[in-house]
Write a structure and sequence with these properties.
The chain is mostly beta strands. The protein contains 4 helices and 19 strands. Helix content is about 10%, strand content about 40%. The chain is elongated and about 85 Å long.
Length: about 290
Amino acid sequence: MSYLGRVIGNCLSKTGHTKQERCDVIEEIPVAMLLAPSGTPFPLDQDEFNDNLASYINEGKLIPVLKLADAAAEGGDANVAQVGSYGSSRVTNINGFVQTFTVEAGDCMFKNLKDLEGNWDVFLVDRHMKLRGYAKEANGTAGFYGHDADIFVTETRANAGTAYSILVRVGYGVNYDHQRKNRHVISVETIPEGLAGVVVEKVSTGVIKVVSQCGGTDYTSLFASAVSPEMFINKAGEAVTTATYDEDTGTITIVPTTSPIRVAGLKTLIDGNVFGIDGVKYFTSIA
């Protein structure tokens, strides 16, 4: 009798390494999360990550969500099914794991978080400033990744017995359990604030300020020594002719004034040494 096929199993013997580590790391209450575009690798080395963290945020590679006040979890448990009518029960899979985070913030943050709904890689930071993700090797290079998840944002409305809060629902993907087996933890020194979305505010004809889209915070001083025409564009994507910062008034004078303009995008601002803000695609008439 000849064997026409074979099945090679994965029942290799596993050695259990269960000695208690002297300095084991225990996960604590999350206080912040960092969102990265899906599949974005970061360095596994702690010093390299910390040295570049501010740059990652300024360049939009990482988006911080701070002031997490609470976290509720559901799912993540074993889904058990019986084999046939009389067989034993077996674990068939792990139910989807979801965490819902309460964010202490108001209307402006809600507006901005709603824009982030979708698929992201999620890192969590606990109260001891431990950043959690997982390690993966891709194309021969090992990297530090956040857990694949879908983000959905809602809110708890205020009433006599409930304070207003923002709820960020993080629904992890089917590979979450496997990713957790490859978990990687580094200590971060601090979490910088995220980018502010900014718009042009007209002061008078051809004279402007740069303010945050929602709260109206004045960021014009960031342009004091770095302002250039490329930082202000019209609807055709063309830069203005001149842009001049006035130290006495804290304003910027723009020429010409014929077309509505907006602040340019993140890359243009970074190239011009203006950090921490990103131009929103909203055009303002300065005539």
